[in-house]
Amino acid sequence: MGLVTNGTNKYQACIDSCNRCAQACMECMQLCNNEPDAADREKCIAKLNECISICQEAAKFMMMGSSHAVDLCKLCALICDECAQECEMFKDDHCKRCAEECNKCEIECQSM
Questions:
Q1: Which residues form a coiled coil (predicted)?
Q2: pTM of this structure
């Protein structure tokens, strides 16, 4: 349910999922940067950064009721899938949890 209007109700589950995914990716990225093998995580860290950006933008487009929200969500789903695949290559708990959030967001964005 929207915070001040009902205009975003049809998107609310996806908005929430995008915001959770962006937060998970931000937390994971910070932790990955501090891992002893951070240099080996360069591709994963870059994908986390992309995922943060697209999730935030997709959520904003949905909040605005943009006619392009669905299109952006399709791209978001693709990037979330790629990010999940990168995170799943690492054994850390934070990477596993992040991959789970990315997978949830991908499913939610695909259903738009």
A1: none
A2: 0.92
